[in-house]
Amino acid sequence: VQLQASGGGLVQAGGSLRLSCTASGFTLDDYVLGWFRQAPEKKKREGISIISKRGISTYYADSVKGRFTISRDNAKNTWYLQMDNLKPEDTADYFCVADRNGLLLELTGPYHYWGQGTQVTVSS
Q1: Which of 43, 49, 53, 63 is nearest to 104 (CA)?
Q2: How many Cβ atoms from other residues are within 10 Å of residue 11's Cβ?
Q3: I want to staple 118 with a disulfide (CB 3.0 to 4.6 A). Which of 8, 32, 86, 88 is the partner?
Q4: What is the pLDDT of residues 87-124, one digit of tens each?
């Protein structure tokens, strides 16, 4: 079982990036999916966004609401985080996460599966 996150990079403030997370070893249909991030100076991961099993419901942290969009493609076993209007404070390592029982933005675990993280750096 593996989650492979990709799409991070260096971008100027106001720019966009799209993160992807592809799962192998299991299918996404029965999993709630999400993204967390950890800024360099922070010890704790921050919940950013969650999408329900069927993709009907989405949830966002206040810090990214209106700028980030989560989506999933179960046929491709992949989910995404479209990040627009990026700000320097969005700089962090971004982690994808999956759990059959659900996710909470306020809770960093324990969850079934975590990706390895992809780095996003936003310059001012």
Answers
A1: 49
A2: 17
A3: 8
A4: 999 999 999 999 999 999 999 989 989 999 999 999 99
* 28 CB-near residues (< 8 Å, 6+ apart): 72, 74, 77, 78, 79, 98
Beta strands in 39-100 (DSSP E): 46-51, 58-60, 68-73, 78-83, 92-99
With CA atoms as reference, report the closest residue to 86 among 48, 45, 40.
Answer: 48
Q: Which two tokens stand for residue 116?
A: 């390895």
- Distance between CA atoms of residues 48 and 69, nearest Å: 10
Closest CA to 75 of 28, 118, 42: 28
Mean of the pLDDT values across residues 57-69?
Answer: 98
pLDDT for the residue 4: 96
Nearest to 28 by CA among 96, 85, 100, 80: 100
In single-letter form, the type of residue at position 17 comes to L
pLDDT band at 23 (very low <50, low <70, confident <90, very high): very high
Mean pLDDT of 1-22: 97
